[in-house]
Design brief:
Strand content: 5-15%
Radius of gyration: 22 Å
Helix content: 25-40%
Number of helices: 13
Number of strands: 7
Length: 348
Amino acid sequence: MPFTAHATSPTITMPRVKAITTGSIPSFLDVILNFAESDTTSNLASQDTWLAQLRDKQGGKLVMYGDDTWLKLFPDTFIRVDGTSSFFVSVSGCSSRKCTVEIAVLRINRQDFTEVDNNVTRNIPSELKRNDWNGMVLHYLGLDHIGHKSGPRSPHMVPKQSEMDGVVEQIYRAIEMEEHLQSTLFVLCGDHGMNDAGNHGGSAEGETSPALLFMSPMLQTISKGFECPVTLPQSTFSYYTTVEQSDIAPTLAGLLGFPIPLNNLGVFIPELLGFWDEVLQTRPRYHEQHCEQLQFVETRSWYRSSCTGNGSRDSDCLYNLVRDPNDRTVDLTRVHLIWSHDVCKQLR
């Protein structure tokens, strides 16, 4: 199921990873910390994230390959790692020990587009055969480096995209074939996009419109598939429904059955509610937890409301409807969505 995941500024890796894992909105201080290789103060070890929740489940173990930003943010979180610096460059023909960083950057070559990704891909086959983990993070850097080097229309871009297609197919085929992966959810997303020059960090449409894709054979029960490729829309990146990048965290919590991260401001993506019936006869605990968290934040903010009567859309009234398990006279799915979207809109 495809979406466009709106990424708010600053559109650089560290704050976007924070948004994806906590469901919160990072600060611009993270722009500085993103480039501070020696920084150890910006980690999320003490914060509630979906990684922490997944690891805390019985037998929860995580593995990670790729951009070492994840290792900085989540120290001592993964049982197996192979990190790659996002500043990796290949220097060739440098005979002098006085070769400067500036010269090194000028001499970036195709190795910078391949080695950073080969370090990730070479670990995939063995991990897909293992059954000792319940979460694997793969963060590829090649497309980003190509964009910085020569822009989104670089001749290196299409071959790299084809390479990534092969990786996606490899993982999805394993999910279909390997018995221990049958209940696996495969989420493909970008932390940010890029502008026409191949750069990012600002708020141009190309920078704030990364892709988001949920994949699993189990999704065939609620989706008949989507046309792909699609016709280029008038608004360049409006290919599919737009959601917030912060919506990933609560959606993962609902689908995988663990508590929503404490500081989350996102909402469950409505298109995935099809896993539960319309009247919520088997209403997941997720809905109640989400409402409890939003109610907690709302009652401590400037925005307060009260239930003024039957049919009221005041948030407290809708909250009580969602919390009442015996009231079958209302469509609780719709009430929950109205309530959570209204409260999130006020808090944002």
